[in-house]
Amino acid sequence: MSAARQPSPTVRDESGVTPEPVRKARTPRARKAAPPHGARPAPALAGEERARLLEGRHHDPHAVLGARARRGGVAFRVLRPYAKAVTVLGKGLRAELFDEGDGLFSGLLPLSDVPEYRLLVAYDNDEIEVHDPYRFLPALGELDLHLIGEGRHEELWTALGSEPMEHQGVAGTRFTVWAPNAQGVRVTGDFSYWDSVAYPMRSLGSTGVWELFLPGIGEGTMYKYDITRPDGSHTVRADPMARHAEVPPANASVVTSSHHVWQDADWMATRGVRPPHQAPLSVYELHLASWRPGLSYRQLAEQLPAYVKELGFTHVELMPVAEHPFGGSWGYQVTGYFAPTSRMGTPDDFRFLVDALHRAGIGVIVDWVPAHFPRDEWALAEFDGRPLYEHHDPQRAAHPDWGTLEFDYGRKEVRNFLVANAVYWCQEFHVDGLRVDAVASMLYLDYSRKEGEWTPNEHGGRENLDAVALLQEMNATVYRRCPGVMTIAEESTAWEGVTRPTDAGGLGFGLKWNMGWMHDTLRYVSKEPVHRKYHHHDMTFGMVYAYSENYVLPISHDEVVHGKRSLVSKMPGDWWQQRAAHRAYLGFMWAHPGKQLLFMGQEFAQGSEWSETYGPDWWVLDESYPAAGDHRGVRNLVRDLNRTYTAAPALWERDTVPEGFAWVESDAADDNVFAFLRFAQDGSQLLAVSNFSPVVRHGYRLGVPEEVPLWREVLNTDEERYGGSGVRHLQPLRPDPVPAQGRPASLRLTLPPMATVWFRP
Predict the structure, then answer these.
(1) pLDDT score recorded for residue 395
(2) Cα dihedral sign for 162, 165, 168, 169?
């Protein structure tokens, strides 16, 4: 008789009478019932291995979770804390697993091969059908791992972090993190209600990289890593490679992909045609979050490009936009190096802003901060339980000025992290330049340290050779991979060769902030005119070393905060004199060799210091304010300075060579007068004259080249429309055959009070 036609089981009573066959009643299956026919208990995990798995100390959870063929069938094991039951589903397959306790479910099914399967996970009030994360092969390739191990992965963000993708035909997200000192790593997030037990990651060999592909997880998912330190304790960390983060003070990482369609092809194709040091470069520095407080990236894209274009600046420089927890740090204490701050929107929103600036013909420079990072316990500090991103030597790890930590530039993985990050901003966000913050603090082992608080390098010197190598590699890599991009060093010492190419032994930057010129000239203009003659050299000394580097002349945010006063408020005298000196100084600066940088608010002479809470004092431009005309006048001057500057190659083509400059008058200390000539490559000229005294100087002779028949005034900071007194040269000037300052011909000028005047042939 076939098995299908066997009678139902029968029983006999004590009298030996055989009753009618009895069928087993079908009742709803209880969650605690034994698994259905066909599933047998799987071999139990050894006690230590079970403990390592549940405690987050297992380096290879894929070896014990998931499905694998073995003698007697295919063994399944699933880790689902809080689940009531787990059932394996497949084609012709439905088998409930045994509950092993602690969220583990397992069973041995009589199958010859591992099938395509899914899991049906039952909770108290819900049932979900999901793919098993532990049936997938690693989603990170051998080449990626090799490059990471070598510290040479120039697109590191494509290998580490969270990456939405399709893997083995299934959509999900790959999570990868570098944590070489960890006993184990687990990924946790809103998808697991922030319980970390269910998703342990596997270690991928000696690289220190941990990986897990989570099917069904997509963009917008929040996550962190639960790391088991070497001592067995746990720490929950944001992803160092996250490309998006929660809005501070929340600090989870967010899975993201870019969907932005760039529209700046024309800009990108032509931006590198002329080297920056031979091109007009006039930079408007701003703090995005406070330029117009409350605006998003997309709202800024509607206002910022038009404003900057109207003023004639060629570039904007954005104070750091990488994610940072404390707004008062202005972005200079970074916790998310690969994530634009979410305060103003998503990464694609930031791309939209850059795109809008490019379409308006404006370049974008972003401040980059590789010198230090904060100690927040959820970020980079002792990331996996030991010093990892920071130096292992406490003396070299602790930054003495800012209470932060310094990177270990000698560790190849850390160097790779920083170099790839520099490339990331240029490549993924189309930025045109990186201004590198606090370079001096990186270059010197004894920076802000007393004797005994630092250890000399291998040659007995104070140079940080690891930092030098990092900066050289960063610059060489960025210039090789990102044509047209410039790098700019904020370096305040006399380090030789900051802008010299790396193959000639230099650091390889394109430009360097001229901090000495800034401090010297600001000291001069802050003096009363009667005392300026004793500080005359402060305005001329910069030309002694002007060609040692490719310079930017910066009036940056650092000069208008913390009691330093705004630029106009540094000037002595009454309100008229302050504005006049402010205008004259800008005229001198724009004509001087070097590129220009001006911080927001200084373009309209705001009187108060900058505050990241309130931003610029836009209200002073409102027509209802009695002095609005004064401020608008200064802004009009900045506009005309930029337009005249851009149209005059003499002011920028030969910034970095002696042939582009000649003093006419550098010794008139008693008069507070300076005059010099600028030359373009074709020999065309511009004469700049500054009078920093509050008196009109009539009949002032200045020597000029005799071959120029006429000179006309093209800019005068004393024009009435700028708020000046209106002393001008309305008609072209013809040189007299009267020698002056060593030249055979001269002009007889009327110098306006506290003003700079430009003349062109």
Answers:
(1) 87
(2) positive
Q: How far apart are the first and last CA of the chain?
A: 117
Confidence band of 72 (pLDDT split at 50, 70, 90) = confident
Question: Would you mind telling me the total number of residues written for the chain in this entry?
Answer: 761
User: Of 670, 737, 717, 720, which Cα lies nearest the Cα of 697?
Assistant: 670
Q: How far apart are CA 209 and CA 207, in angstroms?
A: 5
What span, in angstroms and rounded, lies between the C-alpha atoms of 706 and 412? 60
pLDDT one-digit tens code per residue, 89-114: 999 899 999 999 999 999 999 999 99
Give the DSSP letter string of 539-598.
Answer: HHGGGGSTTSS-EEEEE-GGGGSTTS--HHHHS-SSHHHHHHHHHHHHHHHHHSSSEEEE
Asked about 667 being catalytic, the answer comes back as no
How many CA atoms does the CB half-sphere of 225 hold within 13 Å? 33
Give the Cβ contact number of residue 101 at 10 Å.
Answer: 8
Question: Between vectors from CA 672 to CA 597 and to CA 522, what angle results, nearest 5°?
Answer: 30
Q: Order across the sheet with 170-178: list the strands.
A: 161-167, 170-178, 209-215, 202-203
Give the containing element (helix H, strand E) for 183.
Answer: none
| Pairing state between β 161-167 and 66-70 | unpaired
Among residues 144, 323, 466, 490, the one annotated as catalytic is 490
* Tokens found for residue 490: 């904020």
Task: Report d(CA 408, CA 393) in Å as an integer.
Answer: 9
8 A C-beta contact, residue 76 and residue 42: yes
Cα distance between residue 667 and residue 482, in whole Å: 45
Mean pLDDT of 733-757: 96
What pLDDT does residue 18 have? 34
Residue 12 has pLDDT above 60, yes or no: no
- Residue 38: what pLDDT? 67
In this prediction, residues 214-218 reach a mean pLDDT of 97
CB distance 584 to 672 below 8 Å: no
Residue with the two structure tokens 């850059």: 354
Q: How far is CA 416 from CA 154, 156, 204, 382, 413, in A?
A: 7, 8, 18, 18, 5
* Predicted local confidence at residue 532, as pLDDT: 97
The answer to whether 538 is a known catalytic residue is: no
Q: Is the alpha carbon torsion for 311, 315, 317, 322 positive or negative?
A: positive
Comparing CA positions, the residue from 442, 387, 434 lying closest to residue 411 is 387
Helix (H, G, I), strand (E, B), or coil: what is residue 470?
helix
User: Per the structure block, which two tokens stand in for 35?
Assistant: 């698994």
The Cα–Cα gap between 315 and 340 comes to 19
- Helical ranges in 236-393 per DSSP H: 265-270, 288-291, 297-311, 347-359
3-state helix, strand, coil in the chain (%, to 5): 30, 25, 45
